[in-house]
Each structure stands twice: as structure tokens, then as C-alpha cells.
């Protein structure tokens, strides 16, 4: 019950954030020089200046920015995200078609990041000051420093081209199939590596700090095996700070998808976003940004809930 | 045979500045059911001694040598699994600060029943019942409802009671209480100590009570060991220690206790402070602070001696003190009087 109240409150609190995201994106898109009409006109030698004026009026692009924003916001609130100028299709249909691809990739990246980061962090914390800790520090530093586009290319070069272990062409299989997992490995690893390296360091620091606390000595003094002491008593306390950072890193996974999808030819939102920016498809840019915003807000909301589940003191405050 | 016999225990810490000998060749014994006090200033090695009993000294600390015999079994020879069977089961520990000794993310009840489930062959339900019984026994009202409370929902006094319940949960033979009331206010302290005394009686548990408070020792303990710079400087029954202290350090500690009706303007203290344990003074480690120190004290390190006979003391000796006076090597002797006022200096019974 407490948790439900907590969730509702946090959800309501995220509405102003999304509003802010939409204002900023809208403003930024309109600050960029050129618009979709100039792109269309330039692409078609037969189009005249009069056509451009007519198109701008038709798309509502000649209104003042704030009027355009209010019109757009009104439409969005009724579920209409506007049309794709070039093709005339509904932009939300375009997004829905690509979203599952990006979600699958992001999710895979996430699971990969957590699977490496949490056990790796625990291992480093328990063996702090020893070789295992140094190895994990080196791995984490490399993971943070290597740019993801380069990592992606190297993975393709080694595992697809040289060793021929993973496919290189665009995924042809239906998204929800086991063979799809095979396609997901390389881009998923590429997208998850940086987040994994960050999280592993935080997990290590957080756990090393917890291991010095007196409740750990007290748990050992009860005669509990070291495994129980670490995996029951220390782990739960260490995860509290990791959860917060994990939510922040969602953003890096989302933004990473733009680069990684381009490198791997992954038909997701990232590629669509790049195309939309190139031709100034305002409605498409806005809807993808908004989606990303919602996604990051949701990740933070989820983190807050996990946080409250892990730590009874947080629940107590709400 | 004594329940616990510590022989020549030495514990060192490797620090950047050098090797700290926190416990230096320490020997003592505790009988079954006995209440044994360990007193001394901060840094005397009391807590390190306590943690050594459970082999919980962590790096950079190390138990260098010695034996810790519990019913004749040497704890220092045991494997990790064997010592885990001893911890919480035969020897349990009460920590100084209950707030930090409790894990904030698990319920108090869970933390008590966890040890019960682990050591005794209890089902979850039986363990829960025993934990509730214990909570009730240590004076937590409405124990059944409180079982599922988290530590932050308990007051400081209640947290310490819960920690005591946790320590008693597997009916240990020896309870090591490391300044169990330091973090509490005076009224709560008195209540908890009285409770601890009753419980030790009821569970027939020996207690090693670590404290810097001589008043607590007088209230509770049968025998006392005074520690200074990692060594035992005096060991005696509580009564003997208060009526007839044999070591100048013990005398200093006792004269530092402020009393009601005292008309001195300032508190009396022992001048100076505990020596640096990396380079302890030559001879007697107390000599720089001792008002009776002579040239001999600077040169010769005194051995633990039976003060009446002047013979070297053993673990079994009833009294021992580490001062050259008792081997006849002091010229001036120890020049102090002990005045016993019935209202203050004598051991008092069950003060609340």
C-alpha cells in the first residue's frame, strides 16, 4: 500500500519533467537552420519558391514558434503525433514499427551490463587490493574508454569476419525468435560495455564500503558462512547506490543505440532518428525524443521503486 | 578446566608507520558462568582481544601467536567451518553500538532468527517463536509485533536489547560484551546492565565484559583484568581490586572517577596518554605516566607477579600485577593509600 502511494506520487512528479523535455526539444529543433520544406524543395528541381510558401503554410511552419508548440502539444495530448512530411504517414506508426527492435537491443545490452557488472563488482570488492581487483579495474577502465563505434567495428572484424561466429548482415529473422538472439549478441555487447564498466566500478566501491561496516562483523560473529554474509547482508545494502546509477546509465544505452544501430545496420529507432535529423522531419524528431524521455523517466521511476524495495528506510519516509 | 583459557595471545597490525602490537602476550582465563571484566583506556587492546576470541580480526591485523582454548579446543587451530560453528553458538558477541551492528535492511526478528535457524535444528516457525520469546525476555514490549520491525523503528535502548537477544539466541557458553552500554544514556545503561546480569544468570552464561567504566565493573563482575598498552597489568577479584589495588595504573583509573560530594575543582586524570604501540617505552610501558617510576622502571620490563609471594604469576594465579614493586626491585615503593568510603568506592549491588 505504501509502495503503491509512493509509485503514484513518483509518477505524477515525472509529468513536469516530460513537459520540460518537450519544450527544450521543440525549441532546439526550431533553432537548427533549414527545415523540411527547404529539403523537399532542394530535392525537387521543379518546385518553385511559391510551392515552398504553400507547403510551409500547409504544414503550419509559418506560425510563430510558440503557436506551433501549443498546436503540437494539443495534438499530442489527444494522441496525434503529427505526420511524416515526406511520406505523409503517421509518425507514431513509424515509431511503433521500429520500437521493438530498439527495445530488444537495449534490453539485451542492459542484461549483459548487469550480468557482468554485479558479479564482477562483488568479486573485485571481496578481493580488493589483490590481483583480481586490478584486473577488474583494468577491464572497467578499458570498457569506459573504448568508443562504442570502434568496439562495434572491432567485434565485427574479429568475431564475424575472422572467426565467422556471428552473422554480419541485417537481421532477417522475426524479432521474437531464438535465432534472433544470435543477431543480438554483438550489438548488445557493444551497447552494454560502457554501462557495464561504469556499474562494475560502482558496485565494487559500494560493496567495499559496506564490507567495512560493523553489521558485517556482527553477521560473521553470528557464525554465518561468508557466502551468506556477502550475498545476503552486504549485497542488498550495496545494491542501493548501484540502483540509482543504473537508472542514469539507461540514458547512455539509449543514446548509444544511435551509434550502434548505424554500425550494425540495426533497423531500430536510432537509425530512424538520424534519418529524421538529416531531413529535418520535426514531428519524427520530436516523437522519438519524447519517447526517449519517457523511457529514461520510466527507468528512474523503476529505480526509485527498486530503491524503496531494497531499503526500508526509504519506504518509511513516504 | 576453565571455560576459556587465553595463553600468550599476541595480535599485531601491520600499518604504514610500522607494526602495532595491539595485544601483547596476554593470558587469562574465565570459568563457566563467571563474569569477567576487562578495563582500560581506549587503545589498551580490549576490543582487539574480544574480536580475537571469535577470530574476527581483519587484515591488516593478525593473530601472531598464542592459544585460545574453549573447553580445551584451540580456536586458533580450527578450520573456518569449525570456527563458524563456535561463533554465535558457543561464543556470542554484543557490540558496542547496536545501531551499526544491526543490518538496516532486514527486520530485527529476521536477524535474530537467522542465527537460530543456522545453529540449532529449528524450522522457520520454531526459530521465529524462539526469537519472539527472546525479544520478550530482553524486555521489548509487544515482541510479536516488533519482530517484523526494522532497526530504524527501534530506539537506541531497544536496539541494544535486540542485539543482546541476538547474542543469547543460541544459548552460548560465553558472551563477549564489548562496551555494550557506551552508546546509551545513563538511565538506559543502568537498566540494560541489570538486565544483562539477570540474563547471564538465567542462561548460565559466562560474560567477558569490556568497559572503561570501573563503576560498571564494580556492579557486575566477579573478577577483573586491567589492561594497559596491550598487556594485562593487574588481575584480581573485583572486591580485591577496589579495596586493595596493586598497580599504580589501577589506582590512577580509580582516582579518576568523579564522585558525588567531591569538592575538588577539577577532575583528577592520569597525566600523559597511552604510549604509541609501534614503539612502546623501554622497561615498564606505564613508567612515563607513573608517579612512582624510578630508574629501574625505565630499564627492566616487569613480569606479571603474584604480589603476595613475589613469584611469577600464571593463568591460574588468583592475583597478579605487573610492577617491579612485587619483585623487590623498587627502592621507593608505591606510596598511595586507598580510602574506602562505603557510599562510593565499595562495590554496590544492583544499582538501578
From TrEMBL, chain A:
Protein localization: Cell membrane
Topological type in the membrane: Multi-pass membrane protein
Record domain ABC transmembrane type-1: where: 99-303
Protein name: Peptide/nickel transport system permease protein
GO biological process, one term: transmembrane transport
A Pfam family assignment: BPD_transp_1
Source organism, top-level taxon: Archaea
GO cellular component: plasma membrane
PROSITE patterns: ABC_TM1
Segments passing through the bilayer: 12-31, 103-126, 138-161, 181-200, 239-264, 284-310
Sequence similarity: Belongs to the binding-protein-dependent transport system permease family.
UniProt keyword terms in alphabetical order: Cell membrane, Membrane, Transmembrane, Transmembrane helix, Transport
TrEMBL record, chain B:
Coiled coil: none
Keyword Kinase: no
PROSITE patterns linked: ABC_TRANSPORTER_1, ABC_TRANSPORTER_2
Entry-linked InterPro entries: AAA+_ATPase, ABC_Ni/Peptide_Import, ABC_transporter-like_ATP-bd, ABC_transporter-like_CS, Oligopep_ABC_C, P-loop_NTPase
UniProt keyword terms in alphabetical order: ATP-binding, Cell membrane, Membrane, Nucleotide-binding, Transport
Organism: Halorubrum alkaliphilum
Region (Disordered): 301-320
Domain of life: Archaea
GO terms (BP aspect): peptide transport
Membrane topology: Peripheral membrane protein
GO molecular function annotations of the record: ATP binding; ATP hydrolysis activity
A Pfam match: oligo_HPY
SUPFAM superfamilies registered for this protein in UniProt: P-loop containing nucleoside triphosphate hydrolases (SSF52540)
GO CC entries: plasma membrane
CDD domains for the chain: ABC_NikE_OppD_transporters
Protein name as annotated: Peptide/nickel transport system ATP-binding protein
Residue ranges constituting the ABC transporter domain according to the UniProt record: 6-254
Amino acid at each position: 500500500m505504501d509502495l503503491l502511494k509512493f509509485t503514484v506520487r513518483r509518477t505524477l512528479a515525472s509529468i513536469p519533467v516530460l513537459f520540460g523535455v518537450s519544450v527544450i526539444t521543440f525549441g532546439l529543433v526550431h533553432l537548427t537552420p533549414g527545415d523540411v520544406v527547404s529539403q523537399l524543395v532542394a530535392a525537387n528541381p521543379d518546385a518553385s519558391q511559391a510551392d515552398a510558401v504553400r507547403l510551409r503554410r500547409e504544414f503550419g511552419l509559418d506560425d510563430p514558434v510558440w503557436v506551433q508548440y501549443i498546436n503540437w502539444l494539443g495534438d499530442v495530448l489527444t494522441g496525434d503525433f503529427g505526420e511524416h512530411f515526406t511520406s505523409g504517414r503517421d509518425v507514431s506508426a513509424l515509431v511503433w514499427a521500429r520500437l521493438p527492435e530498439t527495445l530488444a537491443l537495449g534490453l539485451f545490452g542492459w542484461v549483459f551490463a548487469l550480468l557482468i557488472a554485479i558479479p564482477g563488482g562483488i568479486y573485485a570488492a571481496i578481493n580488493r587490493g589483490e590481483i583480481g581487483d586490478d584486473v577488474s579495474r583494468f577491464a572497467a577502465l578499458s570498457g569506459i574508454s573504448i568508443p562504442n563505434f570502434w568496439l562495434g567495428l572491432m567485434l565485427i572484424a574479429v568475431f564475424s569476419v575472422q572467426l565467422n561466429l556471428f552473422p554480419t548482415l541485417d537481421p532477417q529473422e522475426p524479432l521474437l525468435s531464438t535465432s534472433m538472439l544470435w543477431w543480438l549478441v554483438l550489438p548488445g555487447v557493444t551497447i552494454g560495455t560502457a554501462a557495464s564498466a561504469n556499474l562494475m566500478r560502482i558496485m565494487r566501491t559500494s560493496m567495499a564500503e559496506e564490507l567495512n561496516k560493523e553489521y558485517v562483523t556482527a553477521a560473521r560473529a553470528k557464525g554465518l558462512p561468508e557466502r551468506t554474509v556477502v550475498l545476503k547482508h552486504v549485497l542488498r545494502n550495496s545494491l542501493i547506490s548501484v540502483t540509482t546509477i543504473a537508472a542514469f546509465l539507461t540514458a547512455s544505452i539509449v543514446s548509444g543505440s544511435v551509434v550502434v544501430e548505424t554500425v550494425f545496420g540495426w533497423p531500430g529507432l536510432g537509425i530512424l532518428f538520424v534519418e529524421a535529423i538529416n531531413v529535418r522531419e520535426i514531428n519524427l524528431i520530436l516523437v522519438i525524443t519524447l519517447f526517449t524521455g519517457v523511457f529514461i523517466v520510466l527507468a528512474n521511476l523503476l529505480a526509485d521503486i527498486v530503491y524503496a524495495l531494497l531499503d526500508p528506510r526509504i519506504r518509511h519516509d513516504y | 578446566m576453565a571455560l576459556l583459557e587465553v595463553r600468550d595471545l599476541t595480535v599485531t597490525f601491520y600499518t604504514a608507520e610500522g607494526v602495532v602490537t595491539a595485544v601483547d602476550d596476554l593470558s587469562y582465563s574465565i570459568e563457566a558462568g563467571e563474569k569477567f571484566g576487562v578495563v582500560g583506556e581506549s587503545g589498551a587492546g580490549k576490543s582487539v582481544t574480544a574480536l580475537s576470541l571469535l577470530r574476527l580480526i581483519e587484515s591488516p591485523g593478525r593473530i601472531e601467536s598464542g592459544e585460545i582454548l574453549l573447553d580445551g579446543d584451540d580456536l586458533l587451530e580450527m578450520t573456518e567451518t569449525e570456527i563458524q560453528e563456535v561463533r554465535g553458538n558457543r561464543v556470542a558477541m554484543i557490540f558496542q553500538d547496536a545501531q551499526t551492528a544491526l543490518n538496516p535492511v532486514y527486520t530485527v526478528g529476521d536477524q535474530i532468527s537467522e542465527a537460530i535457524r543456522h545453529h540449532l535444528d529449528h524450522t522457520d516457525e520454531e526459530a521465529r517463536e524462539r526469537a519472539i520469546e527472546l525479544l520478550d525476555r530482553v524486555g521489548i514490549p509487544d515482541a510479536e509485533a516488533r519482530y517484523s520491525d526494522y532497526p530504524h523503528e527501534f530506539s537506541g535502548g531497544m536496539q541494544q536489547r535486540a542485539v543482546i537477544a541476538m547474542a543469547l539466541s543460541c544459548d552460548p557458553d560465553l558472551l563477549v560484551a564489548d562496551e555494550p552500554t557506551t552508546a546509551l544514556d545513563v538511565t538506559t545503561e543502568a537498566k540494560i546492565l541489570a538486565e544483562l546480569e539477570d540474563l547471564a544468570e538465567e542462561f548460565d552464561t559466562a560474560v567477558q565484559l569490556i568497559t572503561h567504566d570501573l563503576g560498571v565493573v564494580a556492579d557486575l563482575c566477579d573478577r577483573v583484568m586491567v589492561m594497559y598498552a596491550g598487556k594485562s597489568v593487574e588481575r584480581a577479584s573485583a572486591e580485591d581490586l577496589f579495596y586493595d589495588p596493586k598497580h599504580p595504573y589501577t589506582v590512577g583509573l580509580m582516582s579518576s572517577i568523579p564522585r558525588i560530594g567531591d569538592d575538588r575543582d577539577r577532575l583528577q586524570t592520569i597525566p600523559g596518554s597511552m604510549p604509541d604501540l609501534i614503539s612502546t617505552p623501554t622497561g615498564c610501558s606505564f613508567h612515563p605516566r607513573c608517579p612512582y617510576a624510578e630508574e629501574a622502571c625505565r630499564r627492566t620490563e616487569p613480569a606479571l607477579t603474584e604480589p603476595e609471594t613475589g613469584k611469577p604469576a600464571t593463568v591460574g594465579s588468583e592475583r597478579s600485577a605487573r610492577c617491579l614493586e612485587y619483585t623487590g626491585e623498587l627502592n621507593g615503593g608505591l606510596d598511595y593509600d586507598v580510602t574506602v568510603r562505603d557510599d562510593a568506592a565499595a562495590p554496590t549491588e544492583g544499582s538501578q
